[in-house]
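Known limitations

Files may contain more than one protein. Parsers should not assume a single record per file. Below, a two-record file is shown to illustrate correct handling: read the sequence, read the token line, then continue until end of file.
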Amino acid sequence: MRNPLYCGKVYIKAYKDEREQYINGIHEPLVTKATFDKVQEIIDGRKRQKGKSHKKVNPNFPLRGFVMCPKCDKPLSASTSKGRNKPYSYYHCFSPCDVRIRKDDVHSWFNHFLKSISLDQNAYELLIELIKEEFVKKLIRKVELAPSIMRS
């Protein structure tokens, strides 16, 4: 990523009274000079990379970030570990409390909680409207962010 050959430049060492320099090579560059310079700024830490968040949504762990740690009250993360015979999935905390709860237990508890909720017709209709509003807000945010993501 640091080699200027990628953008078509060739390094010439200093010779006698001439100083060292980069010149345009006769080869076709793999990337433009602007792209090469942008990558150098990001690698050097002078510029932050814009665009998509690196927070991935994993359908195997839909409650990640929503379930709170019972010890420190921070959001739990989730991961799967490769066991000897099969994979094991857990929701876990990153803070020193080291809480780790089996994925199946968390999902079972959450389903039990959802089943315990009962709404009358008015509350049900209000909930549906709130969900629709949040969905529209997220769609609008995605549409607003799309041009900036496309540019980077």
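...continuing to the second record:
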Amino acid sequence: MILHIFPDEKFTEDYIERVNRLFHSGEHYFYIYTKGERRFCNKEFVESLNNVGFINDLFQKESKFVEIYKKSERVIFHGLFLRYFDMLYFYRLKKRYNKYYVWVIWGGDLYDFYNAAHKNPTIILFMKEMLRKKFIEQLEAAVTNYDYEELKERYKTSAIHQMAIYSYQLFPEAADKVEDGTFTKVMVGHSATKTCRHQETFELLRPYVGKIQVYCPLSYPDNKTYIAAVEKRGREIFGNQFFPLKEFMPYDKYISFLGSIDIGIFNNNRQQGMGNITNLLYLGKKVYLSKDNNIRKVYCRPSYIIFDSEKIEETEFFRTLSKKEKERNRQQIELFLSDKEFVRSWGEIFYKKAQK
């Protein structure tokens, strides 16, 4: 059996559905890790399956959890956002039962925790970082696209490098949405994180004031100080054509929003925003990526038509993609997210043993 520890996220359901459909569902058990509130996973969906459970506190369900843990050959941590005592719990279980551990790196769980612990350390952060180091040292595998070298720079680990991505539900009908063409709609970033470099991007867009509407998804994380700073600067530059999106949208409405966008700019300084980038490319939108965002290596030319965020002023900014270019991006995304590719990449992670 393979045990998955998975946060309650927007692609959790789709991932579970694909694994159950494309692999033997009896070989997998999913614990959806929440902090009390369920935001994404549908209760009816979870209750319809016998290999899914919610867990808020490991210690409240320890007997059942350990029973499943002991039956598992490997444990896959989808993102390493565990609380201190939960991580300590898994660290001790590993010492006792010597299970095969896999970490699927999401980005923030590698960069943000490390940066916080080394730039502005507190006693609590220091203790958690010491535990993280020990935990990461004992991993058998790390799943990431192009952040493996970053992992090796930060932590001592002999984990093998594997590559796979999560699937995303695609909605081709969203591309057909027709909007008022008075302004070009520009999406800047995908979350309320400094790594989106919102204010730097605003400066790049300054020459187009009066011709564009700027939309900034800022519904997560709950970083009130950063959100206020982005909103203040956005309104100073773009006035009433700046739209901060601070409320969480259901997934179908968010896809509809992406369908209304003309240009997406992801000027991130680390790997981030893959779900948004993937959907925008699939919907035929023009996408700018920073050279510092390792996702750019996934969407490299000539496979995809993408643009450099550092060269916004040097491009024909308002030129939309041609029908041929849109189709090319869409076909590549369909191949990228196909069942065949999912089985190939995740099958390696489920069954391949580390040769250290």
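Parsers that stop after the first record will miss the second one. For reference, the second record is described as follows. The two ends are 22 Å apart (CA to CA).
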